[in-house]
Amino acid sequence: MPLSAPATQPLIALRDVVKVYATPAGDFPALKGITAEVYPGEFVGIIGKSGAGKSTLLNMITGVDHLTAGEVVVRGPGDQQPVSIHQLGENALAHWRGRNLGVIYQSFQLLPMLNLVDNITLPMDFCGLYRPFGSRGRALELLRLVDLEGHAHKLPAYISGGQQQRVAIARALANDPPILIADEPTGSLDSLTAETIFELFEKLVGQGKTIVMVTHDNSLAPRFTRRLYIADGALVEAESYASQ
Amino acid sequence: MPASDIPAPAIELSQVVKTFKSAAGEFTVLKGVNLVLLEHEFVSIVGKSGSGKSTLLNMITGIDHPTSGEVCVGGTEIYRLNESQRALWRGRTVGIVFQFFQLLPMLTLLENTMLPMDYCQVYAPGERPKRAQDLLALVGLQDQAHKLPAAVSTGQQQSAAIARALATDPPIIVADEPTGNLDSRSADVIIQLFDQLAGQGKTIAMVTHDASLTERTRRNIIIVDGELVDETVGRALPLLNDRQMLQVTRLIQRQTFQPGAAILSEGQAVDTFYMIDSGQVEIVLKARRGGELVVARLGPGEFFGEVELVYGGDSVASARAGANGPAILATLSHRAFLQLLSDSPLTGDAIGKIVQARLAENRAADRRRR
Known about the structure:
Chain A is of the alpha/beta class and 244 residues long. Helices cover 31% and strands 26% of the residues of chain A.
């Protein structure tokens, strides 16, 4: 373990994670034995080119996709024991995810026919994963957190792309999860707008959230508290990544 | 066709203007759009980036509102509703499909599909999971129902978004670049699905910038700089560029001929190019003993008069409206027609070939009538 790594228990631990996709052309190893840890309060960037395996890696952490071998262990603040998430059944996994993870994607996935408050409350009200009460007040509180309270009753079409992404972040925070997972969240934003997203992420990290973000853009590297470089399904050193 | 089977208008826009105000001044995105889409139609709306096509869709869905003009969807003048009435109306009347699917990432495909039923309070809560499962089966996702969006391919995500759009059984589906983010094979699956839904009675309006998709729809609307190209012009002269189509749209006039009415007489001077909007036109040669010979029956999107305009001279045949119904024609003056041929060499070449072919047909017919 590097000397700089915090000396607390890891929040997320990946152990020899292997993912092999069966294709008509034969097996394709997307992840070749990834071992990594993420500690509470970190803002970790997973940096890699298109096809390097970074989205697959995120899908292993969220449990969206099954792994071929290895283990992903997460110890959320509410968990008595570390949870090996790929051992959970579908329902248990969905509940675990609802409590522990907020997910943000490059395209904001807001429902354009719903105003901003409804975009945040709808998933809260919809299934048992979220707090059943006070969803509206919670939504307004979240919109305040992302500086969009004044736009609460607008439809997404009336706000900018950067503002839409902030709504998506507010939605991801609905259940107050300790971990945010972001897949190229600034990928469709200009650099100035991307900056506002980073500032928000930094504010959230300051409030105790842990964020794992994937990007193909190495120029963003200085913004993270720690970087993991991935190439061809394996983690590599920063130096060898840069010399690729 | 019995009168009761004539499709009713599903969507009607009259004189719709949309102006956006920005720091740089006002920008008019839609410049008085008139459009009628009929029930059961599968229509593509094409235009370049910035042409106003997405704004046009937002007028139909009530997501945005016109600066002036009327929009009537499914018999409701939607801009006379207030916001919350319109939200409810929208949920029950229009299913919307977007380029980036807009599935909620933390919900399974089944839950995403159930969402509109929940939001619009349609179907009993106990029926909703079964209905969502059936809709997912309709789009070929019966085995993926319990997966999260990120666990399936982008094509499957879009199929799930279509299942969701169908959840409240809306009569109208509006799709904004639904294949814009898909490979051509997945795109094909989506278009087939729309085709099938139109066959089952849905009205589908699809915006795309992909001209190859327009061949798959029965009707194609072209939007250029916030104005619609006349559909007959688009069909008859597909090789014109966008600007040229718009120019011709502004120059044409419409004439209606009752069944059997004469449009041109053989030997008459021709000074007009005729494009058929609807109905049928018969091209007729005089035959021996006062008889006649019908050499061609032309339908919508076809044209006549070009032979004489290109070669000069009087009409080589007569033209009249078909017996089954009135013929509506879009006409262009001689001068505008010749200008168009010189502005668009592609169109000039194509029409030149048609002229050669028709002259050959006429010579053959001439031999028969003698």
